[in-house]
Amino acid sequence: MPLAFVDLDLFDQNIHAILKRAGNLPIRVASKSVRCLPLLKRILQADSRFQGIMAYHPLEAVKLSQAGLDDILLGYPCFAEQHIQAVLEEVKRGKKIIFMVDEEPHVQQINRMAQQFEVQAKVCMDVDMSTEFPGLHFGVWRSPLRTVNNVMNLANQIKKYPNVELYGIMGYEAQIAGLGDRVKGAGLKNTAITWLKKRSVKDLSKRRGDIVKALRDAGFELQLVNAGGTGSIETSKQEPWITEITVGSGFYSPALFDYYSQFKHAPAAVFALEITRIPASGIYTCQGGGYIASGETGLLKQPVPYLPMGLQPISTEGFGEVQTPIRYSGKESLQIGDPLFFRHAKAGELLERFNTIYLIKNGKIIEEISTYRGLGWCFG
Prior knowledge:
Helix content: 25-40%
CATH architecture of the largest domain: Alpha-Beta Barrel
Distance between the termini: 25 Å
CATH topology of the largest domain: TIM Barrel
Structural class: alpha/beta
Largest sheet: 9 strands, mixed
Order of helices and strands: EHEHEHEHEHEEEHEHHEHEEEEEEEEE
Number of domains: 2
Radius of gyration: 22 Å
Shape: globular
């Protein structure tokens, strides 16, 4: 210890629950939320509706391609020549990797290098799905493409570049997919978020539909209209123009996904810390544990106690880089060397801390497998 494990019984349960939630739509797997090649392959092999990967870094896409995966959509634009070159080398050998773009300089750079490689590069436009309320930008700051005109202007620019082909559009509604509406102790805020989400879904659905129609009316043959995330499957699948939904975090179901009213998945990914000191009665200090999730800082980004029941972090210390004190009021007799179990706030980020994870089935360890980190894959 510290160690991390994935309960395969719960992991597989989540796989089937996500399939059911998505209806008949294909599902693209968000690799950033898994960060483990064997588990990515397990998802893809579970059902034919799991089709393709959304990678979070171009070099990650290359590694996954070289490991035998295909149909990889880059989730974010890239500009560095060495990254585009690495992707185009895979494209030249027949692999399907789709670049993400949202401004003309992205397209110019890709086209210039695609000409050097004598290949046709597929690109997908990232459309911002945030909603503007008076005094509130409800969503995240991603793409500058927010309106039909924005999108059509870039689409027409893409036509000027002979080695670039517009393959599709992607719109991630982060304010729906990544924002819980059932947070403990946040009654009024939950009510406000629920209202904002309903209004935002109406706005983004109409806007996305208008964008798809305008592109198709202009003669663009979209092969891909990607949407969604674990928290927005139910709303995304209602849009008839959506061709696929991206899902990632739901397979592990980290702590942040306890706070949604529409679904409940099983906590499949857990980490264990070792008790190394008992500084006072009822307080147990563990080694390590400072696995804080990215994004806006706050209590929701800290790990949460899992087992045994009755664990509570010390509010003045939290989860620390080298030690984490925990108050315990349960019935177990805890000793130095015993494990305490916790869940990370987010999904794949936990695996950045471990070279390997254990797989558990029927309550027993059956295998130890490498994470991205264990393979030496580090993408920033």
